[in-house]
């Protein structure tokens, strides 16, 4: 396996991890709360 | 002196016929509203007669709360009203039958107070009693109290004024006559009953009256996942057989006719968003709404309909909407001032469009509304899991 291929694989893994954390984990929710007339 | 007991029974309370025909009287019943309130209406057209009703059979299964609200009183006696679970349509309690020695004591042993003696009906007053679905509940009117009849008129001699007790089951009465009239409300599902508190022949059947509605008490109020769909089967609604948005009665319900006099439809909304914690990037937004029929004068929540949910800003192709909304609706009825609505749904994220499906991640969202007719406020809350 060439160094270029290794770096490519590592880069893909890193990208995937970043992608995974950014788009899947560490989410937070917000929304309606409190009182209002109806 | 004559007395009538009116009872209101919610939609779903089964009617039971007997061999005794209802007396024909002109007493202003059925009524809408509460005596003394400006909204009070005699001969209210919202009702149809519940012919020869003798008792109520509590709808549903498991614990069921029946709400009783006094609406009228015109009696010389103090007239105390009780609800009593009986074992059969003849009013049997254990081994005792009406007229047996000890029967009155057995009635007293099961009696739950519905209207205290001499009570003046007032808007908003109600008594909540718990029975089990399928229970037969007989109503009892004592000219003073059950204790008084047992102490001072143990044979329940109908000539002993101020000490007589009457029953909704005709055959249990000392004069074997009908002492109760009943009606069912075609708009909100409640009912109305009327008792005569003196020897029935020629009675006016307007001496004391109350409304009754039911709702199951197994509502998943806390959202602990114990079966929302099953929990959301309530009696007392005019909107569909189960009183639920999505039920077959929605079309009629949304036509506003079933909202009842004084009721108006209000739209309630709520939303939730799920975003990346650090970047604030929005993964998805979820908007939900429904309509509620609210009577501000009665402070009553009468019906629900028109529930919708709309996902938006979904960060595709990573996130997708699961489209599995589960709506739950609390009790409705002319005597229901507090209720709840909740929707639970979910979104799922899968990296690289399911290539790594094992890493998919689902976020459940729950939006809850707690409606309070007494304050006219709705409390909203959102949770995620």
Largest sheet, strands/sense/barrel of chain A? none
> What is the helical fraction of chain A, as a range of percent?
55-70%
Low-confidence stretches of chain A: none
Query: Roughly what fraction of the amino acids of chain A lie in strands?
Result: 15-25%
Distance N to C terminus of chain B: 64 Å
**Overall pLDDT score of chain A:** 82
Average pLDDT of chain B, rounded to a whole number, is 77
Describe this entry's structure for a reader.
The complex is a heterodimer of chains A (38) and B (385). By secondary structure, chain A is α+β, with helices and mostly antiparallel strands. Chain A has one helix spanning 3-23; strands spanning 27-31, 34-37. The model of chain A has no long low-confidence stretch (mean pLDDT 82). Chain B is mainly β. Chain B is 6% helix and 38% strand. Chain B starts with a strand and ends with a strand. The relative contact order of chain B is 0.16. The chains are: A alpha+beta (38), B mainly beta (385). The A-B interface holds A 16, 19-20, 22-38 and B 266, 268-279, 281, 283, 286, 292, 294, 315, 318-319, 349, 351-352, 359, 361, 363, 365, 367, 371, 376-384.
Describe, in short, the structure shown.
The complex is a heterodimer of chains A (38) and B (385). With 38 residues, chain A is of the alpha+beta class.
Helix-strand layout with pairing:
The complex is a heterodimer of chains A (38) and B (385).
Chain A: H1 3-23, E1 27-31, E2 34-37
Chain B: E1 5-8, E2 47-49, E3 56-57, E4 63-73, E5 80-86, H1 103-110, E6 112-115, E7 127-132, E8 136-142, H2 146-152, E9 165-167, E10 180-185, E11 191-195, E12 208-216, H3 228-231, H4 250-254, E13 264-276, E14 282-295, E15 300-312, E16 319-321, E17 326-329, E18 338-349, E19 361-372, E20 377-384
Parallel strand pairs in B: 1-10, 1-12
Antiparallel strand pairs in B: 2-10, 3-8, 4-7, 4-12, 5-6, 5-8, 8-9, 10-11, 11-12, 13-14, 14-15, 16-18, 17-18, 18-19, 19-20
């Amino acid at each position: 396996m060439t160094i270029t291929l290794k770096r490519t694989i590592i880069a893909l893994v890193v990208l995937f991890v970043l992608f995974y954390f950014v788009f899947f984990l560490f989410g937070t929710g917000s929304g309606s709360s409190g009182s209002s007339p109806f | 002196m004559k007395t009538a007991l009116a009872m209101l029974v919610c939609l779903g309370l089964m009617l039971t016929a007997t061999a005794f025909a209802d007396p024909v009287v002109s007493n202003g019943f059925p009524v809408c509203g509460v005596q003394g309130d400006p909204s009070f209406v005699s001969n209210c057209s919202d009702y149809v007669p519940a012919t020869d009703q003798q008792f109520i059979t509590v709808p549903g299964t498991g614990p069921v709360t029946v709400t009783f609200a006094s609406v009228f009183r015109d009696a010389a006696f103090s007239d105390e009203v009780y609800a009593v679970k009986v074992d059969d349509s003849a009013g049997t309690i254990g081994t005792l039958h009406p007229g047996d020695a000890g029967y009155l004591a057995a009635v007293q042993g099961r009696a739950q107070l519905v209207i205290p003696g001499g009570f003046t009906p007032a808007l908003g007053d109600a008594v909540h009693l718990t029975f089990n679905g399928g229970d037969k509940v007989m109503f009892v009117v004592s000219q003073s109290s059950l204790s008084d009849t047992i102490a001072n008129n143990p044979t329940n001699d109908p000539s002993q004024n101020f000490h007589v007790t009457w029953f909704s089951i005709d055959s249990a009465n000392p004069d074997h006559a009908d002492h109760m009239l009943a009606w069912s409300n075609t708009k909100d599902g409640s009912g109305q009953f009327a008792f005569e508190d003196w020897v029935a022949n020629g009675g006016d059947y307007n001496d004391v009256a109350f409304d009754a509605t039911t709702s199951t008490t197994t509502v998943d109020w806390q959202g602990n996942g114990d079966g929302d769909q099953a929990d959301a089967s309530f009696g007392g609604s005019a909107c569909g057989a189960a009183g639920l948005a999505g039920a077959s009665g929605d079309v009629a319900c949304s036509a506003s006719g079933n909202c009842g006099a004084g009721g108006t439809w209000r739209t309630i909304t709520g939303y939730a968003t799920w975003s990346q914690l650090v970047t604030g990037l929005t993964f998805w937004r979820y908007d939900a709404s429904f309509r509620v029929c609210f009577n501000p004068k009665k402070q009553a929540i009468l019906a629900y309909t028109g529930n919708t949910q709309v996902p938006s800003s979904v960060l595709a192709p990573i996130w997708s909407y699961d489209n599995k909304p589960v709506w739950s609706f609390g009790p409705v009825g002319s005597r229901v001032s507090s209720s709840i609505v909740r929707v639970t749904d979910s979104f799922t994220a899968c990296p690289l469009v399911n290539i790594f499906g094992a890493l998919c991640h689902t976020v459940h969202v729950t939006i809850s509304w707690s409606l309070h007719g007494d304050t006219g406020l709705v409390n909203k809350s959102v949770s995620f899991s």
